[in-house]
Each structure stands twice: as structure tokens, then as C-alpha cells.
Amino acid sequence: MKIRRKETDTKVDMQMSAMIDIVFQLLIFFLLTLKIVPPEGDFNINMPLGAVSQQADDTPPPLDLKVRLEANEDGTLSQLWFGGRSLGNDFPFCFERLNAEIGQIAGGQQGFSDDLEVELNPDYNLHYRYIVKAISACRGRMQGDQQITYIEKIKFAPINQPQ
């Protein structure tokens, strides 16, 4: 007995050119509607730039808030300077004195001043923990559960590598 196939079992052809056209249209649609999200985590730390910027003559010059961190041969803190004045090297108390000095300049209990900027100038071989302590001391202090911000703008002076 011969089995006949039904005529409904025909092979289905897919139109690939139409499918490729739809895929490209979707791709173009999503590329054109993409919104780029700005990066998170703005720390407001200004790194040194290649050239010195020119200031307008009518603006008063900013206060000279420079913190110098000198290192011993082994990378420990040798001396902490603020504005040309020595604050000692008795870690962590020298950073508490730095925080108090910055607090007096920034306005004491009032806190944050947006026009002040601190420049950190650490030695090349200084341990990183001292630099972080200096940033924390310049930034502000904690009062209970609340942080009081003194200065938000912190920049680094160019670090010279020893010869």
C-alpha cells in the first residue's frame, strides 16, 4: 500500500531579507534613543593640569591654602606644613591640628565654603595613608552622625619623582 502525503505538508520558506531589514531598523532605533548616563562618583578633587590658568584682574586672589607633607626615607611622615607653618609629625595629632586650622579659615561652626581650595603637596615616597588623612582633615569633620564640610575643592601639586 502506498501512503500518500497530504498536500498541506508543504515546506515553508522564510523570507530572510525582510527579517534582516527589521533587525537593522530595531538596531538603529535603539542607537538613536540611547541616553548616555553621566559617570557616578564625583569626588571634586582637581588633579594638576598642564598649564597654569589666567585669572581675571577684577577677582580677588584665593587664599593660599597649601599643605606640604614631607616623608622620611621609609615613607613615614617627617613633617606636616600648612601655609609655611609646621604642624609637627606626631601622627594623628598633627592632622587634628590641620583640621582645626582649616576649620578656623573656613568659618568654624558654619562649615562649607565653596570659594576655598586646598593644594596638597606630598613627597613622592610618602605612604598613602598620610595623604588620605590630610584629605580627610582638609575636607571637614564628623560631629556625631553628621559630617561638617569645610572645603570641597582639593587639588594636588605636581609630585616630583626623586632622581
UniProtKB/TrEMBL annotation:
Family statement: Belongs to the ExbD/TolR family.
Domain of life: Bacteria
Biological-process GO terms, alphabetical: protein transport
Main subcellular location of this protein, as a coarse class: membrane
Gene Ontology CC terms, in alphabetical order: plasma membrane
Keywords: Cell membrane, Membrane, Protein transport, Transmembrane, Transmembrane helix, Transport
Topology within the bilayer: Single-pass membrane protein; Single-pass type II membrane protein
A Pfam family per the record: ExbD
Name under which the protein is recorded: Biopolymer transport protein ExbD/TolR
GO MF annotation terms: transmembrane transporter activity
Subcellular location, record wording: Cell membrane
